[in-house]
């Protein structure tokens, strides 16, 4: 009986001495893990930012006429009709404005945000677009990158001059054919396009360009 009591007391003392060690070990592990994650984050932040910048510059070149300025260095914010603001990148040839790229987005996608860069000429005609981010269903909503530039029926939005009413799918009384079985994604894509035009129009570039031509 005495031996048992002595053994139990010994085990209790071991447990008491072990618990602080365990807590200390866990603390050290957490600190080291946090330091590693912070280091990895710092190492990847630069390349990620550079990749995003390169993607944006490529998109701007894709959606506007040839330019010789640096649109990203001359960018500015413009208000949209819904109270938000979007970034506009002016494309110039010499001192002449040849078009603008608008970095637009919408939260109305089937799976969340859709980001797109939209190009307009100085008269407000939609020149091209480049989808930068989306989480739409593969094989359905994901078709937006090519669907709305395909010259078939009423799919393409390229070359259209937008109005204050914006672009709408045929189901909503518009004249744009939605992606088959992906009406929500189609509406969201057109919402991003319309928001881009809204920001573009708020800068009075259309009237300025017309006055210059006259």
Short recap of the structure:
The chain is α+β, with helices and mostly antiparallel strands and 214 residues long.
Layout: helices, strands, pairs:
Layout: H1 2-63, E1 76-79, E2 85-93, E3 96-109, E4 112-120, E5 126-133, H2 144-147, H3 183-201, H4 205-213
Antiparallel strand pairs: 1-2, 2-3, 3-4, 4-5
Q: Can you describe this structure?
A:
This protein has 4 helices and 5 strands, in the order αβββββααα. A hairpin with a 2-residue loop joins β2 and β3. The radius of gyration is 28 Å and the shape is globular. The protein starts with a helix and ends with a helix. It is an alpha+beta fold and 214 residues long. It folds into 2 domains: 1-62; 64-213, no CATH class. The model is unreliable at 207-214 (pLDDT under 50). A 5-stranded antiparallel sheet has the order 1-2-3-4-5.
